Amino acid sequence: MTKLYSLIKDLKKANQRLKQATKASPTRMNKDATVQRFEFTFELGWKTIQEYIRDQGLNCQSPKNCLRQAGKLELIENVETWFEFLDNRNRIAHTYNEKMADAVFKKALKFPQEVDKLLTNLK
What total of structural domains would you count in the chain? Predict the structure, then answer.
């Protein structure tokens, strides 16, 4: 099993779990769980993109650089949307407060659809 195949498989599972979390009633615990699942799904997403780009004989190091290249390769439709997801992941990874978590939660609700598009384009 190649590294890319393994990452895609893990990304599919993580996205399914994120979808489950987004469908749960928005209690504080469920919001926190959704934010956490969003974080690790985003991480798997950009690392999958990075590996795909490497498989194409190209290189990217940072999430932003990889997302830009993913846009050029038409893996993702809107690079700016993914930059917003990156900013939200960074905010919540470094600081936690309830107001920020609620804002990230709202963004996280939209992320599974973007991951589905990415997974379709990776095939």
Answer: 1
